[in-house]
Amino acid sequence: MAPPTGKRVKGVQIFRPFVYGTTAKPFDEKTNPKPPGVPDDHTHSWTVFVKGIDDVDITYWLRRVQFKLHESIPNHVRMIEGEKGKPFELHETGWGEFEIAIKLYYVPESSEKPQTLYHHLRLHPYGRTEEEKEDMRLNGGEVISWAYEEQIFNEPYEPFYEILTSGAMPPSFSSSSSGGPSANKSGAAGSKPPSGGKSKEKDGQVKMVRSEGGVLERSAMIPLTNRPGQPFSVETEQVEIKKLQEALVKVEKMLSKTKEEVAAKEKRLKELKESAGK
Ligand code: SLL
């Protein structure tokens, strides 16, 4: 960790979304043949990764990632150095599930200490119901266990703030008014629009823009819609919000029913007391 340079940018919080997780596949002669040299008892090939949403580059804030695998695996602590635009990932084969410690090392300009995440490697279909497990089996036996996460930088140091916010221009930025859909309604904007980069000034109003529902380089936004291999989006968020709202309505119904029952019991109790006192 480098000593801090410059001052902290007060009152600013910047978040950068990312995805981490594992994808596993059983060995199969046709669809996933076992490469030569892989031990007999290995049943699956799998990948663990950390990457940007829509594969957007995150190496400008994340320098390297250490994956600590199960001790039964040779050379079980692996360091992956960031390569611009590429995910931090490693491919392995094995027979068992275990917890992977994923340690994130930030760029030196951030002066941030490394942080560790934990992720359970899943090899076998899982789910709350048999149906959910079956869905996974139908998906070519590929077992996907991914999580969406947001890295928050609180009051970053000035040089790091510059790095975080001096991003690439959106493809639609230079063309006059044919910008992507305005995203500032979605609540997915990461920070106040930085100077240059992801903002667009129109009629004195700053609007966040993004291209074709995807995210931009150095973006803190999630895509508008889902696509194969990219389940994290505003669309997913809306579905989850709807589910929560429906659950809330259900809870409120249950609550008012319980209240009615209590009131009826109290009434009955009062009646009994009165008749007993007569
Ligand atoms: C289990 N507690 O029993 C876990 C341990 C260990 C998995 C799982 C070894 C691979 C290799 C491997 O898959 N270990 O030898 O390279 O399920």
Structure description:
The chain has 278 residues and is α+β, with helices and mostly antiparallel strands. The chain folds into three domains: 13-154, Immunoglobulin-like; 168-232, no CATH class; 236-278. It is built from three helices and ten strands; from the N terminus they run E-E-E-E-E-E-E-H-E-H-E-E-H. Strand 6 and strand 7 form a beta hairpin. The radius of gyration is 25 Å and the shape is extended. Residues 173-202 have low confidence and may be disordered. The structure holds ligand SLL. Residues 70, 72-73, 94-98 line the site of ligand SLL. Ligand SLL binds at residues 70, 72-73, 94-98. Keywords: Coiled coil, Nucleus, Transcription, Transcription regulation. InterPro entries: YEAST_sf, YEATS, YEATS_dom. Residues 234-275 form a coiled coil. It holds the Pfam family YEATS.
What can be said about this structure in brief?
Residues 171-231 are annotated as: Disordered. This protein has helices spanning 130-138, 158-165, 234-277; strands spanning 13-26, 44-51, 62-68, 77-81, 88-94, 99-106, 115-120, 143-154, 199-202, 205-208. With 278 residues, the chain is an alpha+beta fold.
